[in-house]
Amino acid sequence: MGTKWNFYLGLCPFVVLMLFPRETLIVLFGADYEAGQTALMILAVGQLINSATGSNGPLLVMTGHQKPWLWLSASALVANIVLCFILIPLFGIAGAAIGTSITVGGMNLLAVYLAMRYERVWPYDQRYFKGIAAGMIAALCVFGFKFLPLPPFVLLFGGTLIFLIIFFLGLYLLHFDAEDFLLLSLIGTRLGVRFSF
User: Fold this and answer.
1) pLDDT tens-digit series, residues 133-146
2) Between helices 2-19 and 21-29, what is the axis angle to 10°?
3) CA-angle at 40, arms to 35 and 43, nearest 5°
4) Is the pLDDT of residue 73 over 90?
5) What is the mean pLDDT of residues 64-68?
6) N or C terminus: fewer CB in 10 A for the chain?
7) Nearest CA to 172 among 192, 188, 196?
8) What contacts 119, CB < 8 A, 6 or more positions away?
9) HSE-up of 37 (CA within 13 Å, CB side)?
């Protein structure tokens, strides 16, 4: 459940950053940072992989496999330095983003393999398809919103709101799983809101 919801919660910022990279940078940092939109999109890919692979690092450490995790982390650090050394002279800031996304994504995918090898833990099943389907529908709706002649602030926050509404509506229509109801109930309790499903 944790990996699935980590993936769900990572989808919204990923879609928003992929569709509104310019607006994100303008709203958060100013027009001077607009040139970094390609690097932002590349980094978003690496972070989506990170969110979709779950907490395999802590799992390996807690189950006594800290040495493989240490070697994997150290290898990723070295790989990142080497890739940045090669790619930055060729592509500038986008090269740094490519190197970082490759190492972050690669490290987390290998962590999934290690968790499977040592603990027989596999976090994926058919329930993920609900989130993927709902995310694709929401992303298509936001893609249409992107072309409206609106200010960057409105595009960014309007697109985020549209994605969240359609995504969670899609999950609801595709039927939440039993553990999803439990999680939402716990969140509602923390917020002082009672959800009725």
Assistant:
1) 999 999 999 999 99
2) 90
3) 150
4) yes
5) 91
6) C
7) 196
8) 59, 60, 63, 65
9) 17
Name, in order, each residue with C-beta under 8 angstroms of 72's C-beta and a sequence gap of 6 or more. 107, 110, 111, 114
19 vs 23: CA distance, rounded Å: 9
State the Cα–Cα distance between residues 85 and 116, nearest whole angstrom: 32
Per-residue buried b or exposed e for 31-67, using 16+ beta carbons within 10 Å of the residue's own CB: eeeeebbebbbbbbbbbbbbbbbbbbbebbeeeebee
Phi, psi of 54 (to 5 degrees): 80, -165
In which band, very low, low, confident or very high, does the pLDDT at 175 lie, cut at 50, 70 and 90?
confident
Q: Do 115 and 72 contact (CB within 8 A), yes or no?
A: no
Q: One-letter amino acid identity for 44? A: A
Q: CB neighbours (10 Å) of residue 182?
A: 12
CA gap 93, 87 in Å, rounded = 9
Report residue 125's pLDDT band, with 50, 70 and 90 as the boundaries: confident
Q: Do residues 134 and 175 make contact, with C-beta atoms less than 8 angstroms apart? A: no
CB 142 within 8 A of CB 15: yes
What is the residue-averaged pLDDT of the chain? 89
Output the pLDDT for position 140: 95
- Runs of H (alpha helix) within 120-151: 128-145
**pLDDT 10s digits, 84-119:** 999 999 999 999 999 999 999 999 999 999 999 988
- Asked if residue 139 lies in contact with residue 15, where contact means CB atoms within 8 angstroms, the answer is yes
